[in-house]
Amino acid sequence: MNTDFFTMRELVSRAFARYLRVLPSGFQLSSDDIVPSISANIIASRPARTLYKNRKPVCRSLDGVHALSTDKNCAACLSRKTCTPQICLEIIHQGVPWRLILSYTSARNFLLFDSTLKKKGITLEDSTIRIAVRDRGRWGEVHFSNALPEDM
User: Fold this and answer.
1) What is the pLDDT of residues 79-114, one digit of tens each?
2) Is the pTM of this model over 0.85?
3) Confidence band (pLDDT; 50, 70, 90) for 152?
4) Is 31 in a helix, a strand, or coil?
5) Which domain, by its residues, includes 98?
6) Does the CA dihedral 5-6-9-10 come out positive or negative?
7) H or E element: which one contains 129?
8) In sequence order, what are the residues at sequence separation of 6 or more whose Cβ sits closer than 8 angstroms to the Cβ of residue 81?
9) What domain count does the chain have?
10) Per-position DSSP letters for 99-116, written without gaps between them
């Protein structure tokens, strides 16, 4: 894989990424556009953390080390034990960069999918992935699979 191209793709995705919101009914791409699944290319994956108060994020780290809103180091933060560990995915869907923050169950699904690909000798970065949402009542659970040719 061309490392320079990968680095450029990652920089572009971080610079222009918008957050992809997960709802029980699917992904919210715009205020009125909700789809149950998307086909995407995963540019990067990394650990993340979010501190929630009253179900709203009050602090977030996209690398699991430094908070976005302050100069705090996550390891020294007194609230670290109440933070939610997550995975941050930088993806491209229909030529548009998106950032997808995965909660615990969705993160577990992603790690299992990544492990399955690695056993087959396939890398995430070189694959088109189908990402779908399953309705779990008050929340949506994200699942991953290889994209079918008609999804592309």
Assistant:
1) 888 888 899 999 999 988 899 999 889 999 999 999
2) no
3) very low
4) coil
5) 3-45+89-151
6) negative
7) strand 128-135
8) none
9) 1
10) EEEE-HHHHHHHHHHHHH
